[in-house]
Amino acid sequence: MDDKDKKIIEMLIKNSRTSNMDIARQLNVSEGTIRKRIEKLVNDGIITKFTIETTSSVDAIVLIKVDPSLAGSVIKTLKAEYNDIYEYSGSVDIAVRLRCTSLDELNSEVDSIRNIHGVINTDTLIRLK
């Protein structure tokens, strides 16, 4: 990964909807070059998801206790679905940050996490401010 790739990633982090043409103009390269570089970054697993955030959302942290023998499997499953995953030592093994459009969506996501094989318990903290 070179400096141009890093700049592409920085631009997409700031705004995942930035067009290839806009990126190309700012980096003084062709749109095709940007398209190929992004494709390579995706294929190499460096870029894994393109996401958006909304202003009307419910932010929450789901604290997860897992069966230690299944921790790797649980983490792999979570990484396939969520971006913000943190591993801890102590009474909580994993924390997942969720951004949902409603409490119903949050409830559905938490239910999905609870149904992952190896999850023992969850505790959900909803951001108030």
CATH superfamily of the largest domain: Lrp/AsnC effector binding domain/regulation of amino acid metabolism (RAM) domain
Largest sheet, strands/sense/barrel = 4 strands, antiparallel
Distance between the termini: 38 Å
Overall morphology: elongated
**How does CATH name the architecture of the largest domain?**
2-Layer Sandwich
Rounded average pLDDT: 90
Helix content: 40-55%
What is the secondary structure topology, with strand pairs?
Layout: H1 3-14, H2 20-27, H3 31-43, E1 58-66, H4 71-81, E2 85-87, E3 94-100, H5 103-114, E4 119-126
Antiparallel strand pairs: 1-3, 1-4, 2-3
Helix pairs in contact: 2-3
Structure description:
With about 130 residues, this protein is an alpha+beta fold. The chain has 2 domains: about 5-45, Arc Repressor Mutant, subunit A (Orthogonal Bundle); about 60-125, 2-Layer Sandwich (Alpha-Beta Plaits). The chain contains 5 helices and 4 strands; from the N terminus they run H-H-H-E-H-E-E-H-E. It has a 4-stranded antiparallel beta sheet, with helices on one face. Helix 2 (about 20-25) crosses helix 3 (about 30-45). The longest helix is centred in the first third of the chain and has 13 residues, at about 30-45. It is elongated, with a radius of gyration of 18 Å. It starts with a helix and ends with a strand. The model has no long low-confidence stretch (mean pLDDT about 90).
